[in-house]
């Protein structure tokens, strides 16, 4: 697919959190100079283990957090700490987030109609009933779902409601944080297919965050692999999964996403480093079967065709 232009450019994004451990205050280096691009109509998956910084990046784009340094350009403007209320509203209308848990996203005492109507009220969008009907059709839910309570719907139907709300304002970018991780395997594919169709029908650009390389390959054009707050490999989704270059991507690839299938478990190969004091050089070197002396100082990125890989093996 040919893309027209970038809707998001992240340059050297840094985010630290302050945490208290006993009497001491520590800095967690959650994002360490992250560079990423999202093209119009593209689905980019950020893949990595728990704690690698995927959600933090998504939340910065969603303006739930602000970045400490670096520059982030979204839909033609630079995101800065302060935006006027009208700029903030316009931004939130255009950039919507889907959270991983469709159960906690929905208020159990409110009908689906109220949940879906809320953004239309906030953004003063007219033609409410018509738009409610349209989005339900788009997410393939029957119209009578509007008058149901969340507990009357299945997990997959609830996630469809959450997706309906995310598209009701006709956003340009969707940020999907593990949208299928709480769902049964049988329903996962239908939700991924729905996201793909929305992208195709409306040219919505998406950042999809997941632990699961298989669903990333299924849904994305490009994959960025994140480890300890850094992107270690980035490129075409199929190439990354079928022919991973970075030793960490190779490890993710060989780990069985399905616990019923035999295979390497990530925990068996060690743990990611503590982000309070991340190591110098390559952060993966302590777990890497190919580690050598240079890895303790190497921080570069190598471009191989369309792929970027941060590993000294490819120098
Ligand atoms: N609000 C916060 N306060 C302090 N530390 C945080 C906060 N949010 C995230 N962190 C830390 O930042 C690092 C990155 O976390 P993040 O949630 O972005 O990772 P993740 O890859 O999305 O993991 P998961 O898949 O488990 O959600 C972790 O070490 C985490 O403990």
- The H-and-E topology, N to C, reads as EEEHEEHEHHHHEHEHEEHHEE
Q: What order do the strands of the largest sheet run in, or round the barrel if closed? A: 6-7-8-3-9-10-12-11
At the third CATH level, what is the topology name of one domain? Rossmann fold
Ligand kinds? adenosine-5'-triphosphate
- Note the total helix count: 10
Helix percentage range: 25-40%
- The quaternary state of the protein chains shown equals single chain
Distance between the termini: 30 Å
CATH H-level superfamily of one domain: P-loop containing nucleotide triphosphate hydrolases
Strand fraction equals 25-35%
Keywords: ATP-binding, Nucleotide-binding, Transport
GO molecular function: ATP binding; ATP hydrolysis activity
InterPro entries: AAA+_ATPase, ABC_transp_ATP-bind, ABC_transporter-like_ATP-bd, ABC_transporter-like_CS, Oligopep_ABC_C, P-loop_NTPase
Protein name: Oligopeptide/dipeptide ABC transporter, ATPase subunit
Quick structural gist:
The chain has 315 residues and is an alpha/beta fold. The chain has 10 helices and 12 strands. The longest helix has 18 residues, at 185-202.
Commentary on this structure:
It is built from 10 helices and 12 strands. It has an 8-stranded mixed sheet, sandwiched between helices. It is an alpha/beta fold and 315 residues long. The protein has a domain of 217 residues: P-loop containing nucleotide triphosphate hydrolases (Rossmann fold), CATH 3.40.50.
Which features characterize this protein?
315 residues, alpha/beta, 8-stranded mixed beta sheet, single chain, binds adenosine-5'-triphosphate, 10 helices, Oligopep_ABC_C, ABC_transporter-like_ATP-bd, 4-stranded antiparallel beta sheet
